[in-house]
């Protein structure tokens, strides 16, 4: 993917983000984009909720190893105790099984590609345990939408708090207002904000 126009636009719109872009370097969002069908993408998003990346990756890999093929019926037929053994919490087990029960009535990835973001959020958040943030991760990393801003994401809020020298973590409204400067490339801006968190405080931003 060619991010040149997006990056130039973001640099001109936000001097602080421009410094982050210079320090982080090339946008590698395309290297973390996901493939697979809607079931695998949503299962992954559910498992990753409220966990560190490392812990979530381990649990997700163990979950996938339970199945030769990931299907709704296979998930429904898996005893809760087996899912607990791979590290999935009881609430998330109920979310995964609700997803499996509803899955046949959900759109396919190809269907979603033709829909606007808010309509996708409306449809998928009807599934138990799938909130706006979860769908936004799908929009960003599976459907490759370039203008998504997950205002509830703690990493985004932490990055903004640090980079913009705010006295406390920004609330949703503050994130939304700042994000107005990044349209229509808010996904790209978020990738740089997440990336900035790996830069040590001793390094100048």
UniProtKB/TrEMBL annotation:
<dbReference type="Pfam" id="PF00730">
    <property type="entry name" value="HhH-GPD"/>
</dbReference>
<feature type="domain" description="HhH-GPD">
    <location>
        <begin position="47"/>
        <end position="198"/>
    </location>
</feature>
<dbReference type="InterPro" id="IPR051912">
    <property type="entry name" value="Alkylbase_DNA_Glycosylase/TA"/>
</dbReference>
<keyword id="KW-0227">DNA damage</keyword>
<keyword id="KW-0234">DNA repair</keyword>
<protein>
    <recommendedName>
        <fullName>DNA-3-methyladenine glycosylase II</fullName>
        <ecNumber>3.2.2.21</ecNumber>
    </recommendedName>
</protein>
<dbReference type="InterPro" id="IPR003265">
    <property type="entry name" value="HhH-GPD_domain"/>
</dbReference>
<dbReference type="InterPro" id="IPR011257">
    <property type="entry name" value="DNA_glycosylase"/>
</dbReference>
């Amino acid at each position: 993917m060619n991010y040149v126009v997006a990056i130039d636009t973001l640099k001109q719109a936000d001097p602080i983000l421009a410094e982050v872009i210079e320090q982080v370097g090339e946008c590698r969002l395309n290297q973390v984009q996901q493939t697979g069908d809607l079931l695998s993408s949503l299962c992954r998003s559910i498992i990753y909720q409220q966990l560190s990346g490392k812990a979530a990756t381990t649990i997700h890999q163990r979950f996938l190893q339970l199945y030769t093929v990931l299907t709704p019926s296979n998930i429904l037929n898996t005893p809760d105790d087996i899912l607990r053994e791979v590290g999935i919490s009881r609430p998330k087990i109920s979310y995964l099984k609700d997803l499996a029960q509803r899955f046949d009535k959900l759109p396919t990835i190809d269907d979603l590609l033709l829909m606007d973001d808010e309509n996708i959020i409306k449809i998928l958040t009807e599934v138990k345990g799938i909130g706006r943030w979860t769908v936004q991760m799908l929009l960003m990393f599976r459907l490759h939408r370039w203008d998504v801003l997950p205002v509830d994401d703690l990493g985004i809020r932490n990055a903004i708090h640090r980079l913009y020298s705010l006295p406390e973590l920004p609330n949703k409204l503050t994130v939304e207002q700042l994000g107005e400067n990044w349209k229509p490339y808010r996904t790209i801006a978020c990738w740089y904000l997440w990336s900035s968190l790996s830069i040590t405080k001793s390094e100048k931003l």
